[in-house]
Specification:
The complex is a heterotrimer of chains A (about 325), B (about 650) and C (about 200). By secondary structure, chain A is an alpha+beta fold. Chain A has nine helices and twelve strands. Chain A has a five-stranded mixed β-sheet with strand order 3-2-1-5-8, with no helix packed on it. A five-stranded mixed β-sheet of chain A has the order 4-10-9-6-7, covered by helices on one side. Chain A is elongated, with a radius of gyration of 27 Å. Chain B has a two-stranded antiparallel ribbon with strand order 1-2. In chain B, a hairpin with a 6-residue loop joins strand 1 and strand 2. The chains are: A alpha+beta (about 325), B mainly alpha (about 650), C mainly alpha (about 200). Chains in contact: A-B, B-C. Chains A and B meet through helix 1, helix 2, helix 4 and strand 9 of A and helix 4, helix 8, helix 10, helix 11 and helix 12 of B. The structure holds heme-A (2 copies), dinuclear copper ion and copper (II) ion. Dinuclear copper ion binds next to loops of chain A.
Chain lengths: ~325, ~650, ~200
């Protein structure tokens, strides 16, 4: 909604667009739509934007003219003005009713077209945790990951959303709108990605101290890639340590506190308090997109997660430097 | 209304003003301060206290903006940030916006309807003390380091004992229940005052729109506040006594909490908005030099908004996975609520169109309000569209929407009202020069702050995050927002300075500096304690424009009419009139100062402290104190009940 | 602008006498109180709709043997109030005293029943959501009865101290209204909490 405003303000708005463009980084913009739902909604937005621009400009023009008109003593003009009721009827009732009727139709149509069950859906179960996302594929038993959700392009996905703690909200702006995860209730979000890519998501419902770092991403792959990804996890390949250091890491991991919270398939670590780490090496991020997944960051995370993500529910560890390096090597090898 | 020739009433007998003033004067010093029941003193107190809270909450916002100005900043940690945005929202809604409007209502309603005080002056004092103690209660959390951190609408289970074991949430939950009491008591008082104390001739269709808006405010509060009291109250029961209203494991429902909260929460935003438009409906006609266009339309729109606003609350819950059909219904209802706003909007435009606009400071704030509310309203319509809201809910787009309406469409009118009515309240004008400067700084600062937030919402920035990454492209706009907020803050500071400075240096205002149309402009500035020695007689919606000179009533021989003239003021009475045709029905005795309201409020505060720290003794002592004081109070009041 | 003229006779006393301002204040207070109960009952049905069984966890449905008669006692306690009100209108303080007393006895016996009922229940208010909402609604109503009885005593005392006569009984009128409200609330609470669980 650009509006009629003093030049200063127009400049400010222009400046804002420039800052916007000149700013490096890729924003997860809902208008940069790569999903069936987000595309439809961005269509709705541009329609509303045009209506809003017209309404704003016209009404603001009325305000400005109304102020300027009577000034300077042009009394006789006031006589020629339309009746009060005419203003109110046309501006306050007739015009809005027409516009609102359009919006009502758009609302109903769009709502009806979205989020309907479709044949051949891929089912994914997502549980909102404090402050990460637990992800399973109900049709591929045993596959469990966290924060990074792989889906095939062009295939409808049914995301089943629950929570066993507080309320969170699952939002991937480039693909679809939000749905909350609510304890005691199962919600569904249905979306289809129309182009391959990595789409950033955020937890949108305030959920406590690290609500800000409860991001995730949906990685939409071409179907063949996705199938390969899923198959590798279904068969449990890549779980055996490939070096001595990593083997030692596995030992430390299962012996130390780690196994009390985390699971790695095929080991004695089966706890599900923290994220499943079976494919950790294949993830791009640590701690719900808090820092990139590099060995250095991982070591830092294991030694003192609080310094990376203050308030996280993972406690610091008192392992020797060697053990930490070993665990790091082990975890990074799980892909 | 038969308007026949009628000889002008004879002038009131001269009153001995010093004597009358002394009769109504509060005791000096602290005793008078704690015991006064004068609606004007209480109203001023509300306004000052609320503005104190406004600046505190605004300062918090500035600190928050400091943290968000650049990516990965470490000015604030997550805990502190969460506390600040919670207290920012809570303070703005519960301790600034709602009570400041009650404060203006308190001050202005008796003056505008031509009476000498509120219907229940002691209750009035009580509601102020409850508000103040409620505010102190919530802010004492800062001293024990247990600041509420669950957001202003604190959803359960986040605010349950399991996930927020500390006292933080109790300060918030109990505080809301406590201050809700103040709003309720205040509203009862407004309703009865407006129905029973209007000056003869001030029929419903002649009431100033501000009075109408406060009537709607009060009725909405009466029906809405119980919902928030129960939402937070039942949550406190869950927390303190282990009940399971909201515990899904034991048959409770977390969505029930949201329904209860928003059943109040939505009407609440109109509770704030309606009186703000009432102020605008007084300011615009005065400075357009003509009556408000479509008076009945506007009054009707206020009432309609009041009704419809109880049927849209689910639009705050569009992402909770309710059945789409139900949500589409609420989406439609939210669209419909636009129409009364449109009606008001064009009534204002028509008023200016046919008048001659004087761009004084209050009017500038009025025009600023129009330009800002227009955008805030339009974005409101957008978020009412269900599928669009799925995208923008809980993002900065919503933050932008509600600051355009709360900060723009409510705070701007309140600033306008300060410039408009402060001369009446203090007897001194605020500087126009500084006022206009303040307006422009605020207006520019406002848009620089809140306009970019819309774009941030599109770019995927969720609300309530204490930091964000460098690579997300949100840095530039956030920097702009933060700079804007400092500009806006500066603008408000100019008004604060202007206001304080005018107390000493302001030009004397005279009775009617703006050529206003309503009765408050007929008394001196500031008005005497008794407001009107004789009650004015009203024959128009615009008594000061249409009735020159303004006629005043004489006391009649009957008991029912004895309070109309200056004899009533001497007897510390004010006339009660029939609700519809405003004929005298008797007199209400204006009570003298009393500590009882303060004591009852203290007792209740002790109860809440007792609940907070789980000390039964404190609670019981508090209740005991309150009960004794109430009994004493009810015992003594018999004399003045008619 | 045309000079508006004051309606003649506007300052003459109203022909019909209305209730005192305090009565109106109570009336508005009752609106908000009524809303409290409306919302609580809505919450009751909301929780019920969300549960597979009701009452939850095999709790037995409320017993009616005592509930029904005592409900009628409570509703009946409005009658002596009407009678007392008619009395004091004509300045009959004795009738006021008697009516208020009878009403007190009836209200008190209802309160006693409620406490007995609470004692008799096999579930607590912590057990589950049913227990929580049941105790809260019935308990809150009982609290209102209790406050009403307190007001009743004050009115009785004032009557004995001779503070009422046929023109001055405003506080009694306020109490009357409140007491009718307490009865009326039960008119909604009783069918909802006691009868409706029997219908499945
Ligand atoms: C003063 C307060 C105020 C006001 C007046 C409004 C006004 C409106 N609001 Fe807003 N709202 C809030 C305060 C307010 N709101 C707050 C505080 C929140 C967030 C709470 C939180 O989550 O923390 C919120 C959130 C909110 C939501 C939920 C968003 C979300 O969380 O996802 C919705 C959804 O429907 C909504 C809708 C509306 C609508 C339709 C109006 C309408 O009343 C607006 C109508 C006015 C106009 C449209 C302008 C004038 C009209 C014309 C000139 C006629 C022509 C115009 C057209 C035809 C478009 N609001
Ligand atoms: C009336 C209501 C109101 C008002 C006026 C404001 C005013 C402002 N608000 Fe706020 N805001 C809310 C109501 C309001 N807000 C609500 C309800 C929320 C939601 C909370 C939640 O999510 O729970 C919110 C949330 C909110 C957020 C989102 C936080 C988040 O989601 O993470 C932000 C972020 O920028 C913000 C910013 C601001 C700014 C910059 C101002 C500026 O206008 C402030 C301008 C500054 C001043 C007015 C102060 C000037 C200071 C001085 C002059 C110093 C003097 C100091 C003393 C005397 C002590 N507000
Ligand atoms: Cu999870 Cu916010
Ligand atoms: Cu709303």
């Amino acid at each position: 909604m650009r509006r009629v405003r003093p030049a200063a303000l127009a400049a400010v708005v222009a400046a804002s667009s420039i800052t916007l463009v000149s700013c490096r980084g890729h924003s997860p913009s809902m208008l940069d739509a790569h999903g069936t739902e987000s595309q439809r909604v961005s269509g709705v937005w541009w329609l509303m934007f045009s209506l809003a621009a017209v309404v704003y400009v016209v009404v603001a023009a009325f305000i400005v003219i109304a102020i300027v008109r009577g000034r300077g003593g042009k009394r006789e003009k006031a006589q020629k003005a339309p009746k009060d009721d005419t203003f109110i009827w046309l501006g306050g009732i007739v015009a809005p009713v027409i516009i609102l009727a359009v919006l009502a139709v758009v609302t109903v149509n769009t709502t009806e077209a979205l989020r309907n069950p479709e044949a051949g859906e891929l089912r994914i179960a997502v549980v909102g945790k404090r402050w990460w996302w637990d992800v399973t594929y109900p049709d591929s038993p045993g596959v469990r990951t966290a924060n990074e959700i792989h889906i095939p392009v062009d295939r409808p996905v049914d995301i089943e959303l629950t929570s066993d703690n507080v309320i969170h909200s699952f939002w991937v702006p480039e693909l679809a709108g939000k749905v909350d995860t609510i304890p005691g209730q199962t919600n569904h979000l249905r979306l289809t990605a129309t182009a391959p890519g990595t789409y950033r998501g955020e937890c949108a419902e305030f959920c406590g101290i690290q609500h800000a770092h409860m991001s995730f991403q949906i990685i939409a792959d071409p179907p063949a890639d996705f199938d390969r990804w899923l198959a590798r996890r279904t068969t449990g390949a890549g779980l055996t340590p490939t070096s001595d250091q990593a083997a030692r890491g596995e030992l430390v991991f299962t012996r130390e506190a780690c196994a009390g919270c985390h699971a790695v398939r095929g080991t004695q670590a089966v706890a599900q308090i923290g994220p499943d780490l079976s494919d950790f090496g294949g993830r791009q991020w640590i701690g719900s997109l808090t820092v990139p997944n590099t060995p250095a960051n991982l070591e830092q995370w294991i030694v003192d997660p609080q310094s990376v993500k203050p308030g996280t529910l993972m406690p610091p560890t008192a392992l020797s430097a060697e053990d930490i390096a070993a665990v790091t090597a082990y975890l990074e090898g799980l892909k | 209304m038969a308007v026949t020739e009628h000889p002008p009433p004879p002038p009131s007998p001269p009153v001995d003003e010093p004597e009358l003033l002394e009769l109504w004067e509060d005791a000096p010093g602290i005793p008078g301060f704690l015991s006064t029941v004068d609606h004007k003193r209480i109203g001023m107190r509300y306004i000052y206290t609320c503005f104190f809270f406004f600046f505190v909450a605004g300062a918090m916002a500035l600190v928050m903006r400091g943290q968000l100005a650049k990516p990965n900043a470490d000015l604030l940690g997550p805990q502190l940030y969460n506390e600040l945005f919670t207290m920012h929202g809570v303070t703005m809604i519960f301790l600034f916006n709602t009570p400041v409007l009650a404060g203006f209502g308190n001050y202005l309603i008796p003056l505008q309807i031509g009476t000498r005080d509120m219907a229940f002056p002691r209750m009035n004092a009580f509601s102020y003390w409850v508000f103040l103690l409620g505010g102190i209660f919530m802010y004492s959390s800062f001293f024990v380091g247990k600041i509420p951190d669950g957001g202003w609408f604190g959803y359960t289970p986040l605010v349950s004992r399991t996930f927020s074991p500390g006292l933080n949430i109790d300060f918030w939950g109990l505080g809301i229940v406590f201050t809700g009491l103040s709003t309720t008591v205040g509203s009862i008082n407004f309703i009865v005052t407006i129905f029973k104390l209007r000056a003869p001739g001030m029929t419903l269709n002649r009431m100033p729109i501000f009075v109408w808006s406060m009537l709607v405010f009060s009725f909405m509060a009466i029906f809405a506040v119980p919902a928030v009291t129960l939402a937070t109250g039942l949550n406190e029961l869950d927390r303190l006594f282990g009940t399971s209203f909201f515990n899904p494991a034991l048959g409770g429902s977390v969505l029930l909490y949201q329904h209860l909260f928003w059943f109040w929460g939505h009407p609440e935003v109109y509770i704030l908005f309606v009186p703000a438009t009432g102020m605008i409906s007084q300011i615009i006609p005065t400075f357009s030099g003509r009556p408000l266009s479509g008076y009945l339309w506007v009054a009707g729109a206020l009432v309609t908004v009041g009704f419809i606003s109880f049927g849209v609350w689910v639009h705050h819950m569009f992402a909770t996975g309710l059945p789409p059909v139900a949500m589409a219904f609420f989406s439609g209802a939210s669209l419909i609520i636009t129409i009364p706003s449109g009606v008001q909007f064009f009534a204002w435009i028509a008023t200016m169109w046919k008048g001659r606009v004087r761009l004084t400071t209050p009017m500038l704030f009025g025009v600023g309000f129009l330009l800002i509310f227009l955008l805030g309203g339009i974005t409101g319509v957008m978020v009412a569209v269900l599928p669009f809201d799925w995208q923008v809910t809980d993002s900065y787009f919503v933050v932008a929407h509600f600051h355009y309406v709360l900060n723009g469409a409510v705070v701007f009118p309140i600033f306008g009202a300060i410039y408009y009515w402060m001369p009446k309240m203090t007897g001194r004008m605020l500087s126009e020069k500084l006022g206009k400067l303040s307006f422009w700084v605020m207006f520019v600062g406002f848009n620089v702050t809140f306009f970019p937030m819309h774009i941030l919402g599109f770019l995927g920035m969720p609300r309530r995050i204490y930091t964000y990454d460098n690579g997300l492209g949100w840095g530039g706009l956030n920097a702009m927002v933060s700079i804007g907020s400092a500009i806006f803050g500066l603008g408000t500071a100019i008004t604060l300075f202007n206001w304080l400075w005018s107390r000493w240096r302001g030009v004397p205002a005279g009775d009617d500096p703006w050529d206003g149309d309503s009765l408050e402009w007929s008394t001196t500035s500031p008005p005497p304690h008794y407001n009107f020695a004789s009650i004015p007689l009203v024959a128009s919606r615009h008594p000061l424009w249409d009735q020159r000179p303004l006629p005043f009533a004489e006391s009649g021989p009957e008991e029912d009419t004895s309070g109309l003239g200056s004899e009533g003021a001497v007897a510390r009475e004010t006339p009660v009139t029939s609700g519809i045709d405003t004929r005298p029905e008797g007199n209400l005795e204006i009570p003298h100062e009393t500590y009882l309201p303060f004591v009852v409020a203290l007792g209740l505060a002790a109860l809440f402290v007792g609940l907070l720290i789980k000390a039964a003794v404190v609670g019981v002592v508090g209740v005991g104190l309150a009960v004794v004081a109430v009994l004493w109070w009810s015992w003594r009041t018999e004399e003045d009940l008619t | 602008m045309t000079a508006a003229v004051v309606t003649p006779g506007i300052t003459r006393p109203a022909t019909r006498r209305s209730y005192p301002t305090a009565w109106w204040g109570m009336a508005v207070l009752i609106m908000t109180e009524a809303m409290v109960f409306v919302i609580l009952l809505a919450a009751y049905f909301f929780l019920r709709a969300a549960s597979k069984e009701w009452p939850l966890a095999g709790i037995e449905v409320p017993k009616l043997e005592l509930a029904v008669p005592f409900s009628f006692v409570l509703w009946g306690s409005s009658l002596p109030i009407f009678w007392a009100e008619a009395g004091i209108r004509n300045g009959n303080v004795a009738r006021l005293k008697a009516g208020v007393l009878i009403s007190f006895v009836m209200g008190a016996s209802f309160l006693a029943y409620t406490l007995y009922d609470f004692n008799d229940l096999h579930f607590g208010w912590r057990d589950n959501a049913y227990g929580s909402i049941y105790y809260t609604i019935v308990g809150l109503h009982a609290l209102h009865v209790f406050i009403g009885l307190g007001m009743n005593v004050v009115i009785q005392l004032k009557a004995w101290l001779g503070r009422y006569d046929h023109g001055r009984y405003a506080s009694a009128e306020v109490f009357f209204l409140y007491w009718h409200f307490v009865d009326a609330v039960w008119l909604a609470v009783f069918p909802a909490l006691f009868l409706s669980p029997h219908i499945r």
